[in-house]
Amino acid sequence: MADIGITEVVLRDAHQSLIATRMRTEDMLPVCDRLDSVGYWSLEVWGGATFDACIRFLKEDPWERLRRLRAALPNTRLQMLLRGQNLVGYRHYSDDVVRAFVQRAAANGIDVFRVFDALNDIRNLETAIQAVKAAGRHAQGTICYTTSPVHSVEQFAEMAQALQAMGCDSICIKDMAGLLTPYAAADLSQRLCAAVDIPVQLHMHATAGVAEMCQLKAIENGCLRIDTAISSFAGGASHPPTESMVAALQHTEYDTGLDLTLLQEIGFYFREVRRRYHQFESEFTGLDTRVQIYQVPGGMISNLYAQLREQGELARMNEVLAEIPRVRQDLGYPPLVTPTSQIVGTQAVLNVLTGERYKTITNEVKLYLQGRYGRAPGPVNPMVRQQAIGNEAIIDVRPADLLPDEMENLAEQIGELACSEEDVLTYAMFPEIGREFLEQRARDALVPEPLEPLNSGDGEEIRPVEFNVTLHGDSYHIRFTGSGHRHQDTRPFYLTVDGVPEEVLVESLEELQEGAEPARRHGGSRRPPATGPGDVTTSMPGTIVEVLVEEGSEVQAGDPVIILEAMKMETEIQAPIGGRVGAVHVQKGDSVNPDETLIAIAPAD
What we know:
The protein has 605 residues and is of the alpha/beta class. The chain has an eight-stranded parallel beta barrel with strand order 1-2-3-4-5-6-7-8, surrounded by six helices. The radius of gyration is 24 Å and the shape is globular. 47% of the residues are buried.
Protein backbone atom coordinates (compact mmCIF):
# COMPACT_ATOMS: atom_id res chain seq x y z
CA MET A 1 0.00 0.00 0.00
CA ALA A 2 1.34 3.45 -0.96
CA ASP A 3 0.01 5.81 1.70
CA ILE A 4 -0.09 9.35 0.32
CA GLY A 5 1.34 12.19 2.38
CA ILE A 6 -0.39 15.56 2.49
CA THR A 7 1.34 18.91 2.87
CA GLU A 8 -1.21 21.46 4.07
CA VAL A 9 -0.53 24.98 2.76
CA VAL A 10 -3.28 27.06 4.42
CA LEU A 11 -0.78 28.82 6.70
CA ARG A 12 1.39 29.99 3.78
CA ASP A 13 0.66 29.56 0.09
CA ALA A 14 -3.13 29.38 0.31
CA HIS A 15 -3.56 32.77 1.94
CA GLN A 16 -0.68 34.18 -0.10
CA SER A 17 -2.62 33.20 -3.23
CA LEU A 18 -6.09 34.35 -2.17
CA ILE A 19 -5.81 37.21 0.35
CA ALA A 20 -2.45 38.76 -0.50
CA THR A 21 -0.53 36.99 2.32
CA ARG A 22 -2.41 38.92 4.97
CA MET A 23 -3.37 36.22 7.49
CA ARG A 24 -2.10 37.17 10.92
CA THR A 25 -0.52 34.85 13.45
CA GLU A 26 -3.37 35.54 15.86
CA ASP A 27 -5.73 33.79 13.44
CA MET A 28 -3.42 30.79 13.03
CA LEU A 29 -2.73 29.90 16.64
CA PRO A 30 -6.29 29.02 17.84
CA VAL A 31 -6.57 26.13 15.36
CA CYS A 32 -3.03 24.80 15.71
CA ASP A 33 -3.99 22.08 18.19
CA ARG A 34 -6.39 20.61 15.61
CA LEU A 35 -3.91 21.03 12.74
CA ASP A 36 -1.31 19.26 14.86
CA SER A 37 -3.67 16.32 15.40
CA VAL A 38 -4.44 15.68 11.73
CA GLY A 39 -1.31 13.73 10.82
CA TYR A 40 -0.21 15.78 7.84
CA TRP A 41 3.14 14.86 6.32
CA SER A 42 4.00 18.55 6.80
CA LEU A 43 2.49 21.98 7.30
CA GLU A 44 3.84 24.79 5.13
CA VAL A 45 4.00 27.78 7.44
CA TRP A 46 6.80 30.11 6.33
CA GLY A 47 8.82 31.51 3.44
CA GLY A 48 7.63 32.79 0.10
CA ALA A 49 6.00 36.18 0.53
CA THR A 50 5.12 35.71 4.21
CA PHE A 51 8.40 37.22 5.39
CA ASP A 52 7.88 40.37 3.32
CA ALA A 53 4.19 40.70 4.28
CA CYS A 54 4.89 40.25 8.00
CA ILE A 55 7.22 43.22 8.25
CA ARG A 56 5.64 45.38 5.53
CA PHE A 57 1.93 45.10 6.32
CA LEU A 58 1.26 43.04 9.43
CA LYS A 59 4.06 44.53 11.54
CA GLU A 60 4.88 41.10 12.90
CA ASP A 61 8.34 39.68 13.43
CA PRO A 62 8.42 36.69 11.02
CA TRP A 63 10.93 34.91 13.23
CA GLU A 64 8.64 35.26 16.23
CA ARG A 65 5.76 33.89 14.13
CA LEU A 66 7.85 30.83 13.35
CA ARG A 67 8.77 30.29 16.99
CA ARG A 68 5.14 30.57 18.09
CA LEU A 69 3.97 28.13 15.43
CA ARG A 70 6.74 25.70 16.37
CA ALA A 71 5.56 25.76 19.98
CA ALA A 72 1.92 25.32 18.93
CA LEU A 73 2.62 22.46 16.48
CA PRO A 74 5.01 20.13 18.34
CA ASN A 75 4.02 16.95 16.49
CA THR A 76 4.06 18.10 12.86
CA ARG A 77 6.88 18.84 10.44
CA LEU A 78 7.02 22.54 9.62
CA GLN A 79 7.97 23.45 6.09
CA MET A 80 9.10 26.62 4.32
CA LEU A 81 9.61 27.78 0.73
CA LEU A 82 13.15 29.02 0.09
CA ARG A 83 14.11 30.75 -3.17
CA GLY A 84 17.59 29.26 -3.31
CA GLN A 85 20.25 31.97 -3.38
CA ASN A 86 17.40 34.55 -3.19
CA LEU A 87 16.20 33.14 0.16
CA VAL A 88 12.94 35.08 0.79
CA GLY A 89 14.01 38.24 -1.05
CA TYR A 90 14.36 39.32 -4.67
CA ARG A 91 18.14 39.34 -5.21
CA HIS A 92 21.00 36.92 -4.77
CA TYR A 93 22.63 36.97 -1.34
CA SER A 94 26.16 35.97 -0.49
CA ASP A 95 26.84 32.43 0.67
CA ASP A 96 27.42 33.44 4.28
CA VAL A 97 23.97 35.08 4.39
CA VAL A 98 22.38 31.96 2.87
CA ARG A 99 24.07 29.69 5.41
CA ALA A 100 23.13 31.95 8.33
CA PHE A 101 19.51 32.23 7.19
CA VAL A 102 19.06 28.48 6.82
CA GLN A 103 20.75 27.79 10.16
CA ARG A 104 18.52 30.27 12.00
CA ALA A 105 15.38 29.06 10.23
CA ALA A 106 16.19 25.51 11.30
CA ALA A 107 16.95 26.60 14.86
CA ASN A 108 13.64 28.46 15.07
CA GLY A 109 11.57 25.50 13.92
CA ILE A 110 11.74 24.63 10.19
CA ASP A 111 12.04 20.91 9.46
CA VAL A 112 11.56 20.80 5.66
CA PHE A 113 13.13 23.28 3.27
CA ARG A 114 11.60 23.35 -0.21
CA VAL A 115 14.41 24.95 -2.21
CA PHE A 116 13.89 26.26 -5.74
CA ASP A 117 15.51 28.54 -8.28
CA ALA A 118 13.42 30.55 -10.72
CA LEU A 119 15.65 29.55 -13.65
CA ASN A 120 16.10 25.92 -12.55
CA ASP A 121 19.82 26.73 -12.39
CA ILE A 122 21.03 24.13 -9.90
CA ARG A 123 24.16 26.19 -9.21
CA ASN A 124 21.86 28.58 -7.34
CA LEU A 125 20.61 25.73 -5.12
CA GLU A 126 23.93 24.28 -4.01
CA THR A 127 24.69 26.47 -0.99
CA ALA A 128 21.15 26.39 0.38
CA ILE A 129 20.88 22.60 0.07
CA GLN A 130 24.28 22.12 1.71
CA ALA A 131 23.19 24.41 4.55
CA VAL A 132 19.95 22.46 5.04
CA LYS A 133 21.84 19.19 5.24
CA ALA A 134 24.39 20.71 7.63
CA ALA A 135 21.48 21.70 9.89
CA GLY A 136 20.20 18.12 9.85
CA ARG A 137 16.94 19.03 8.12
CA HIS A 138 15.00 17.66 5.14
CA ALA A 139 16.11 19.20 1.83
CA GLN A 140 13.45 19.09 -0.86
CA GLY A 141 14.93 19.90 -4.25
CA THR A 142 12.44 21.64 -6.48
CA ILE A 143 11.81 21.69 -10.21
CA CYS A 144 9.89 24.73 -11.48
CA TYR A 145 7.55 23.29 -14.09
CA THR A 146 6.92 25.20 -17.28
CA THR A 147 6.45 24.57 -20.98
CA SER A 148 8.47 26.08 -23.80
CA PRO A 149 10.56 25.06 -26.80
CA VAL A 150 13.59 24.67 -24.49
CA HIS A 151 11.96 22.62 -21.70
CA SER A 152 11.27 18.89 -21.78
CA VAL A 153 10.39 16.00 -19.49
CA GLU A 154 13.84 14.54 -20.13
CA GLN A 155 15.43 17.78 -18.94
CA PHE A 156 13.34 17.73 -15.75
CA ALA A 157 14.33 14.11 -15.12
CA GLU A 158 18.01 15.01 -15.46
CA MET A 159 17.51 17.87 -13.01
CA ALA A 160 15.88 15.50 -10.52
CA GLN A 161 18.89 13.20 -10.72
CA ALA A 162 21.24 16.15 -10.16
CA LEU A 163 19.23 17.23 -7.11
CA GLN A 164 19.39 13.73 -5.63
CA ALA A 165 23.14 13.70 -6.21
CA MET A 166 23.38 16.99 -4.29
CA GLY A 167 21.87 15.26 -1.24
CA CYS A 168 18.18 16.14 -1.53
CA ASP A 169 15.81 13.95 0.48
CA SER A 170 12.86 14.39 -1.89
CA ILE A 171 11.89 16.06 -5.16
CA CYS A 172 9.07 18.56 -5.64
CA ILE A 173 7.37 19.37 -8.94
CA LYS A 174 6.45 23.03 -8.47
CA ASP A 175 3.68 23.98 -10.92
CA MET A 176 3.23 27.56 -9.72
CA ALA A 177 0.98 28.59 -12.61
CA GLY A 178 -1.17 25.47 -12.89
CA LEU A 179 0.11 24.51 -16.36
CA LEU A 180 0.04 20.74 -15.94
CA THR A 181 -2.72 18.72 -17.54
CA PRO A 182 -3.67 15.27 -16.21
CA TYR A 183 -1.77 13.17 -18.72
CA ALA A 184 1.23 15.49 -18.66
CA ALA A 185 1.25 15.10 -14.87
CA ALA A 186 1.13 11.34 -15.26
CA ASP A 187 4.03 11.29 -17.72
CA LEU A 188 6.19 13.69 -15.68
CA SER A 189 5.59 11.80 -12.43
CA GLN A 190 6.38 8.47 -14.03
CA ARG A 191 9.62 9.80 -15.55
CA LEU A 192 10.81 11.42 -12.32
CA CYS A 193 9.97 8.41 -10.16
CA ALA A 194 11.94 6.23 -12.56
CA ALA A 195 14.88 8.64 -12.55
CA VAL A 196 15.32 8.90 -8.76
CA ASP A 197 14.81 6.69 -5.73
CA ILE A 198 13.66 9.42 -3.35
CA PRO A 199 9.99 10.50 -2.94
CA VAL A 200 8.39 12.83 -5.49
CA GLN A 201 5.84 15.46 -4.43
CA LEU A 202 3.46 17.56 -6.53
CA HIS A 203 2.78 21.22 -5.72
CA MET A 204 0.16 22.59 -8.12
CA HIS A 205 -2.08 25.63 -8.19
CA ALA A 206 -5.69 25.13 -9.22
CA THR A 207 -5.90 28.19 -11.47
CA ALA A 208 -6.85 26.30 -14.66
CA GLY A 209 -9.36 23.99 -12.96
CA VAL A 210 -7.59 20.66 -13.58
CA ALA A 211 -5.38 20.34 -10.48
CA GLU A 212 -7.33 17.57 -8.73
CA MET A 213 -7.19 15.40 -11.86
CA CYS A 214 -3.48 16.10 -12.18
CA GLN A 215 -2.86 15.08 -8.60
CA LEU A 216 -4.74 11.82 -9.04
CA LYS A 217 -2.82 10.94 -12.22
CA ALA A 218 0.47 11.86 -10.54
CA ILE A 219 -0.35 9.60 -7.57
CA GLU A 220 -1.25 6.72 -9.88
CA ASN A 221 2.18 7.11 -11.48
CA GLY A 222 4.31 7.06 -8.35
CA CYS A 223 3.97 10.49 -6.71
CA LEU A 224 3.85 9.92 -2.95
CA ARG A 225 2.96 13.38 -1.66
CA ILE A 226 0.71 16.25 -2.73
CA ASP A 227 0.09 19.81 -1.57
CA THR A 228 -3.47 20.77 -0.68
CA ALA A 229 -5.27 23.66 1.00
CA ILE A 230 -8.13 23.36 3.46
CA SER A 231 -11.35 23.90 1.46
CA SER A 232 -12.14 27.40 2.72
CA PHE A 233 -8.81 28.58 1.26
CA ALA A 234 -8.73 26.28 -1.78
CA GLY A 235 -9.36 26.54 -5.52
CA GLY A 236 -8.50 29.11 -8.16
CA ALA A 237 -5.09 30.67 -7.61
CA SER A 238 -4.72 28.46 -4.51
CA HIS A 239 -4.62 24.64 -4.45
CA PRO A 240 -6.91 21.61 -4.56
CA PRO A 241 -9.02 21.23 -1.39
CA THR A 242 -7.59 18.97 1.29
CA GLU A 243 -10.93 17.42 2.25
CA SER A 244 -11.80 16.60 -1.37
CA MET A 245 -8.50 14.85 -2.08
CA VAL A 246 -8.66 12.94 1.21
CA ALA A 247 -12.20 11.80 0.35
CA ALA A 248 -11.19 10.88 -3.21
CA LEU A 249 -8.37 8.65 -1.97
CA GLN A 250 -10.23 7.08 0.94
CA HIS A 251 -10.59 3.26 0.90
CA THR A 252 -8.08 2.93 -1.92
CA GLU A 253 -4.46 1.84 -1.98
CA TYR A 254 -3.60 5.54 -1.82
CA ASP A 255 -5.59 6.31 1.35
CA THR A 256 -4.09 9.24 3.25
CA GLY A 257 -5.38 7.99 6.60
CA LEU A 258 -6.48 11.50 7.57
CA ASP A 259 -9.65 12.18 9.59
CA LEU A 260 -12.15 13.82 7.26
CA THR A 261 -14.36 14.99 10.15
CA LEU A 262 -11.47 16.79 11.82
CA LEU A 263 -10.47 18.37 8.52
CA GLN A 264 -14.00 19.67 8.05
CA GLU A 265 -13.89 21.29 11.50
CA ILE A 266 -10.67 23.03 10.49
CA GLY A 267 -12.30 24.11 7.23
CA PHE A 268 -15.19 25.72 9.10
CA TYR A 269 -12.74 27.58 11.33
CA PHE A 270 -10.85 29.04 8.37
CA ARG A 271 -14.09 29.95 6.61
CA GLU A 272 -14.78 32.38 9.44
CA VAL A 273 -11.17 33.58 9.45
CA ARG A 274 -11.28 34.35 5.73
CA ARG A 275 -14.21 36.72 6.24
CA ARG A 276 -11.99 38.94 8.36
CA TYR A 277 -9.79 39.59 5.33
CA HIS A 278 -12.47 40.28 2.74
CA GLN A 279 -10.87 43.61 1.85
CA PHE A 280 -7.99 41.68 0.27
CA GLU A 281 -10.10 39.43 -1.92
CA SER A 282 -9.59 39.89 -5.65
CA GLU A 283 -11.70 38.99 -8.65
CA PHE A 284 -8.52 37.67 -10.27
CA THR A 285 -7.90 34.79 -7.87
CA GLY A 286 -10.58 32.44 -9.19
CA LEU A 287 -10.51 29.91 -11.99
CA ASP A 288 -8.76 31.42 -15.01
CA THR A 289 -7.93 29.23 -18.00
CA ARG A 290 -5.88 32.01 -19.61
CA VAL A 291 -2.92 30.62 -17.68
CA GLN A 292 -2.73 27.80 -20.22
CA ILE A 293 -2.02 30.38 -22.95
CA TYR A 294 -0.09 33.13 -21.19
CA GLN A 295 1.48 31.04 -18.37
CA VAL A 296 0.68 33.85 -15.94
CA PRO A 297 0.21 32.69 -12.31
CA GLY A 298 -2.90 33.94 -10.54
CA GLY A 299 -0.96 36.16 -8.13
CA MET A 300 0.85 37.76 -11.04
CA ILE A 301 -2.45 38.55 -12.79
CA SER A 302 -3.71 40.23 -9.60
CA ASN A 303 -0.58 42.39 -9.48
CA LEU A 304 -0.95 43.38 -13.13
CA TYR A 305 -4.60 44.21 -12.54
CA ALA A 306 -3.74 46.54 -9.66
CA GLN A 307 -0.95 48.29 -11.56
CA LEU A 308 -3.02 48.87 -14.69
CA ARG A 309 -6.05 50.02 -12.72
CA GLU A 310 -3.95 52.59 -10.84
CA GLN A 311 -2.96 54.12 -14.16
CA GLY A 312 -6.41 54.03 -15.73
CA GLU A 313 -5.12 51.46 -18.25
CA LEU A 314 -7.09 48.41 -17.16
CA ALA A 315 -8.54 48.11 -20.66
CA ARG A 316 -5.04 47.17 -21.83
CA MET A 317 -4.84 44.03 -19.68
CA ASN A 318 -5.16 41.74 -22.70
CA GLU A 319 -2.35 43.63 -24.46
CA VAL A 320 -0.11 43.05 -21.45
CA LEU A 321 -1.07 39.38 -21.23
CA ALA A 322 -0.23 38.99 -24.90
CA GLU A 323 3.11 40.80 -24.42
CA ILE A 324 4.23 38.58 -21.52
CA PRO A 325 4.98 35.49 -23.69
CA ARG A 326 6.94 37.70 -26.11
CA VAL A 327 9.10 39.12 -23.31
CA ARG A 328 9.53 35.64 -21.89
CA GLN A 329 10.76 34.41 -25.28
CA ASP A 330 13.17 37.36 -25.53
CA LEU A 331 14.60 36.42 -22.13
CA GLY A 332 15.13 32.76 -22.99
CA TYR A 333 11.88 31.27 -21.63
CA PRO A 334 12.35 31.59 -17.84
CA PRO A 335 9.63 29.90 -15.74
CA LEU A 336 7.28 32.54 -14.36
CA VAL A 337 7.85 32.36 -10.62
CA THR A 338 9.29 34.87 -8.15
CA PRO A 339 11.38 36.80 -9.07
CA THR A 340 11.24 36.08 -12.83
CA SER A 341 7.46 36.57 -12.93
CA GLN A 342 7.94 40.13 -11.65
CA ILE A 343 10.86 40.72 -14.02
CA VAL A 344 8.91 39.59 -17.08
CA GLY A 345 5.57 41.09 -16.00
CA THR A 346 6.91 44.55 -15.21
CA GLN A 347 8.81 44.71 -18.49
CA ALA A 348 5.68 43.68 -20.39
CA VAL A 349 3.71 46.49 -18.72
CA LEU A 350 6.41 49.00 -19.65
CA ASN A 351 6.50 47.78 -23.23
CA VAL A 352 2.74 48.27 -23.58
CA LEU A 353 2.36 51.56 -21.74
CA THR A 354 5.32 53.33 -23.32
CA GLY A 355 4.14 52.29 -26.78
CA GLU A 356 7.61 51.07 -27.73
CA ARG A 357 9.10 47.71 -26.80
CA TYR A 358 12.11 48.07 -24.49
CA LYS A 359 12.10 51.86 -24.65
CA THR A 360 12.43 51.61 -20.86
CA ILE A 361 14.19 48.55 -19.43
CA THR A 362 14.13 47.70 -15.74
CA ASN A 363 17.38 47.24 -13.85
CA GLU A 364 16.35 43.67 -13.08
CA VAL A 365 16.03 42.84 -16.79
CA LYS A 366 19.50 44.29 -17.32
CA LEU A 367 20.90 42.17 -14.48
CA TYR A 368 19.09 39.11 -15.81
CA LEU A 369 20.50 39.59 -19.31
CA GLN A 370 23.96 40.02 -17.83
CA GLY A 371 23.64 36.63 -16.14
CA ARG A 372 23.40 37.88 -12.55
CA TYR A 373 20.32 35.76 -11.79
CA GLY A 374 21.85 32.64 -13.32
CA ARG A 375 21.81 30.82 -16.63
CA ALA A 376 18.78 31.49 -18.85
CA PRO A 377 17.01 28.26 -19.86
CA GLY A 378 17.27 29.13 -23.57
CA PRO A 379 18.96 31.62 -25.89
CA VAL A 380 18.05 35.26 -25.27
CA ASN A 381 17.25 37.82 -27.94
CA PRO A 382 20.67 39.34 -28.82
CA MET A 383 19.15 42.65 -29.91
CA VAL A 384 17.32 43.07 -26.60
CA ARG A 385 20.49 42.14 -24.70
CA GLN A 386 22.52 44.69 -26.68
CA GLN A 387 19.89 47.37 -26.05
CA ALA A 388 19.84 46.57 -22.34
CA ILE A 389 23.51 46.17 -21.42
CA GLY A 390 25.49 47.25 -24.48
CA ASN A 391 28.91 45.63 -24.55
CA GLU A 392 29.05 44.69 -20.86
CA ALA A 393 30.54 41.27 -20.18
CA ILE A 394 28.18 38.33 -19.75
CA ILE A 395 28.58 36.40 -16.50
CA ASP A 396 28.93 32.66 -16.98
CA VAL A 397 29.86 31.69 -13.42
CA ARG A 398 27.52 31.07 -10.51
CA PRO A 399 26.35 34.63 -9.69
CA ALA A 400 26.98 34.26 -5.95
CA ASP A 401 30.65 33.52 -6.68
CA LEU A 402 30.99 37.24 -7.39
CA LEU A 403 29.49 38.31 -4.05
CA PRO A 404 31.73 38.94 -1.04
CA ASP A 405 30.56 37.92 2.42
CA GLU A 406 27.90 40.31 3.74
CA MET A 407 26.88 39.37 7.28
CA GLU A 408 29.54 41.37 9.10
CA ASN A 409 28.85 44.54 7.10
CA LEU A 410 25.10 44.11 7.47
CA ALA A 411 25.44 43.83 11.25
CA GLU A 412 27.46 47.04 11.31
CA GLN A 413 24.96 48.86 9.10
CA ILE A 414 21.92 48.03 11.23
CA GLY A 415 23.82 48.49 14.50
CA GLU A 416 21.98 48.48 17.81
CA LEU A 417 18.57 48.17 16.15
CA ALA A 418 19.38 44.48 15.73
CA CYS A 419 18.94 42.50 18.94
CA SER A 420 19.77 39.15 17.36
CA GLU A 421 21.19 37.49 14.28
CA GLU A 422 17.59 37.07 13.12
CA ASP A 423 17.19 40.86 13.14
CA VAL A 424 20.31 41.25 11.00
CA LEU A 425 18.84 38.76 8.54
CA THR A 426 15.55 40.66 8.44
CA TYR A 427 17.52 43.78 7.50
CA ALA A 428 19.48 41.76 4.94
CA MET A 429 16.34 40.54 3.20
CA PHE A 430 14.69 43.97 2.93
CA PRO A 431 17.01 46.83 3.89
CA GLU A 432 14.48 49.67 3.61
CA ILE A 433 11.38 48.12 5.17
CA GLY A 434 13.50 45.94 7.44
CA ARG A 435 15.14 48.99 8.99
CA GLU A 436 11.78 50.74 9.25
CA PHE A 437 10.31 47.69 11.00
CA LEU A 438 13.17 47.50 13.51
CA GLU A 439 12.97 51.25 14.17
CA GLN A 440 9.22 51.04 14.80
CA ARG A 441 9.76 48.08 17.09
CA ALA A 442 12.35 50.05 19.05
CA ARG A 443 9.80 52.86 19.51
CA ASP A 444 7.04 50.39 20.35
CA ALA A 445 5.20 51.79 17.33
CA LEU A 446 4.37 48.68 15.31
CA VAL A 447 0.81 49.15 14.05
CA PRO A 448 -0.59 46.69 11.49
CA GLU A 449 -2.82 47.87 8.69
CA PRO A 450 -6.45 47.77 9.89
CA LEU A 451 -9.01 45.16 8.96
CA GLU A 452 -12.45 46.36 7.98
CA PRO A 453 -14.93 46.89 9.45
CA LEU A 454 -13.33 48.67 12.41
CA ASN A 455 -14.83 48.64 15.89
CA SER A 456 -15.17 51.66 18.13
CA GLY A 457 -13.91 51.55 21.70
CA ASP A 458 -17.30 50.43 23.05
CA GLY A 459 -17.52 47.58 20.56
CA GLU A 460 -19.99 49.30 18.25
CA GLU A 461 -19.38 48.52 14.61
CA ILE A 462 -18.33 51.47 12.47
CA ARG A 463 -19.73 51.02 9.00
CA PRO A 464 -17.44 52.08 6.17
CA VAL A 465 -18.36 55.13 4.12
CA GLU A 466 -19.04 54.28 0.48
CA PHE A 467 -19.41 56.47 -2.58
CA ASN A 468 -18.74 56.56 -6.32
CA VAL A 469 -16.46 58.96 -8.14
CA THR A 470 -16.02 59.67 -11.83
CA LEU A 471 -12.55 60.65 -13.07
CA HIS A 472 -11.69 61.22 -16.72
CA GLY A 473 -14.84 59.39 -17.72
CA ASP A 474 -14.15 56.28 -15.59
CA SER A 475 -16.27 55.48 -12.52
CA TYR A 476 -14.80 54.01 -9.35
CA HIS A 477 -16.47 52.65 -6.23
CA ILE A 478 -14.69 54.00 -3.14
CA ARG A 479 -15.12 52.42 0.28
CA PHE A 480 -13.43 54.17 3.22
CA THR A 481 -12.42 51.59 5.81
CA GLY A 482 -10.37 53.36 8.43
CA SER A 483 -7.35 55.45 9.32
CA GLY A 484 -4.05 54.91 11.06
CA HIS A 485 -1.93 56.82 13.53
CA ARG A 486 -0.42 60.15 12.53
CA HIS A 487 3.31 59.92 11.82
CA GLN A 488 5.23 63.20 11.63
CA ASP A 489 3.29 65.29 9.10
CA THR A 490 1.14 62.56 7.54
CA ARG A 491 -1.68 60.23 8.51
CA PRO A 492 -2.69 57.10 6.59
CA PHE A 493 -6.26 56.56 5.46
CA TYR A 494 -7.39 53.15 4.22
CA LEU A 495 -9.91 52.55 1.47
CA THR A 496 -10.78 50.20 -1.34
CA VAL A 497 -11.12 51.21 -4.97
CA ASP A 498 -13.33 48.76 -6.88
CA GLY A 499 -12.54 46.24 -4.16
CA VAL A 500 -8.77 46.70 -4.27
CA PRO A 501 -7.25 47.93 -0.97
CA GLU A 502 -5.34 51.22 -1.08
CA GLU A 503 -3.52 53.43 1.40
CA VAL A 504 -3.57 57.22 1.05
CA LEU A 505 -1.20 59.32 3.16
CA VAL A 506 -2.65 62.76 3.81
CA GLU A 507 -0.66 65.73 5.13
CA SER A 508 -1.98 67.74 8.03
CA LEU A 509 -3.66 71.09 7.46
CA GLU A 510 -0.62 73.04 8.64
CA GLU A 511 1.37 71.78 5.66
CA LEU A 512 -1.32 73.08 3.32
CA GLN A 513 -1.19 76.68 4.53
CA GLU A 514 -0.03 79.38 2.16
CA GLY A 515 3.76 79.55 2.06
CA ALA A 516 4.31 76.02 3.27
CA GLU A 517 6.69 73.80 1.35
CA PRO A 518 4.78 71.82 -1.29
CA ALA A 519 3.81 68.34 -0.21
CA ARG A 520 5.84 65.70 -1.95
CA ARG A 521 5.91 62.47 -0.04
CA HIS A 522 3.68 59.42 -0.31
CA GLY A 523 1.35 60.60 -2.99
CA GLY A 524 0.45 63.92 -1.33
CA SER A 525 1.91 65.52 -4.45
CA ARG A 526 1.45 68.95 -5.92
CA ARG A 527 4.17 68.46 -8.52
CA PRO A 528 3.60 70.36 -11.75
CA PRO A 529 2.20 68.40 -14.68
CA ALA A 530 4.68 67.31 -17.32
CA THR A 531 4.36 69.53 -20.38
CA GLY A 532 7.85 70.35 -21.71
CA PRO A 533 10.44 68.18 -23.47
CA GLY A 534 12.78 68.39 -20.46
CA ASP A 535 10.22 67.24 -17.88
CA VAL A 536 11.25 63.87 -16.42
CA THR A 537 8.25 61.58 -15.83
CA THR A 538 7.48 57.95 -15.08
CA SER A 539 5.29 55.60 -17.06
CA MET A 540 3.88 53.88 -13.97
CA PRO A 541 3.25 54.68 -10.30
CA GLY A 542 6.12 53.79 -8.01
CA THR A 543 8.46 54.81 -5.22
CA ILE A 544 11.66 56.80 -5.60
CA VAL A 545 14.63 54.63 -4.60
CA GLU A 546 17.35 57.13 -5.43
CA VAL A 547 17.76 60.56 -7.04
CA LEU A 548 20.97 60.55 -9.05
CA VAL A 549 21.25 64.27 -9.85
CA GLU A 550 20.83 67.58 -8.08
CA GLU A 551 19.91 71.09 -9.07
CA GLY A 552 22.52 72.48 -11.46
CA SER A 553 23.81 69.10 -12.65
CA GLU A 554 24.68 68.80 -16.32
CA VAL A 555 23.14 65.74 -18.02
CA GLN A 556 23.11 64.19 -21.46
CA ALA A 557 20.02 62.72 -23.08
CA GLY A 558 19.71 59.12 -21.86
CA ASP A 559 21.62 59.65 -18.61
CA PRO A 560 19.92 57.98 -15.62
CA VAL A 561 18.55 60.61 -13.25
CA ILE A 562 16.20 58.63 -10.97
CA ILE A 563 15.82 55.02 -9.84
CA LEU A 564 12.17 54.05 -9.41
CA GLU A 565 10.70 50.95 -7.79
CA ALA A 566 7.42 49.64 -9.21
CA MET A 567 5.94 46.14 -8.90
CA LYS A 568 9.01 45.25 -6.76
CA MET A 569 11.32 45.99 -9.70
CA GLU A 570 13.72 48.92 -10.09
CA THR A 571 13.89 51.04 -13.25
CA GLU A 572 16.28 53.80 -14.24
CA ILE A 573 14.43 56.88 -15.44
CA GLN A 574 16.56 58.67 -17.99
CA ALA A 575 16.93 62.30 -19.00
CA PRO A 576 14.75 62.95 -22.07
CA ILE A 577 17.08 65.73 -23.27
CA GLY A 578 20.54 67.06 -22.54
CA GLY A 579 20.90 70.19 -20.45
CA ARG A 580 21.04 71.52 -16.90
CA VAL A 581 18.89 70.18 -14.07
CA GLY A 582 16.53 72.81 -12.73
CA ALA A 583 13.93 71.97 -10.10
CA VAL A 584 14.04 68.54 -8.43
CA HIS A 585 10.55 67.73 -7.20
CA VAL A 586 11.25 64.34 -5.60
CA GLN A 587 13.39 62.74 -2.96
CA LYS A 588 14.09 59.20 -1.80
CA GLY A 589 10.94 57.47 -0.54
CA ASP A 590 8.45 59.62 -2.48
CA SER A 591 5.50 57.97 -4.19
CA VAL A 592 5.08 59.26 -7.73
CA ASN A 593 2.55 58.96 -10.54
CA PRO A 594 2.61 59.25 -14.33
CA ASP A 595 2.39 62.71 -15.91
CA GLU A 596 4.03 64.46 -12.92
CA THR A 597 7.23 66.41 -13.43
CA LEU A 598 9.77 64.69 -11.21
CA ILE A 599 12.75 66.70 -12.43
CA ALA A 600 12.83 69.65 -14.82
CA ILE A 601 15.75 69.84 -17.26
CA ALA A 602 16.46 73.06 -19.13
CA PRO A 603 17.88 72.39 -22.63
CA ALA A 604 21.52 73.24 -23.24
CA ASP A 605 22.06 76.58 -24.98
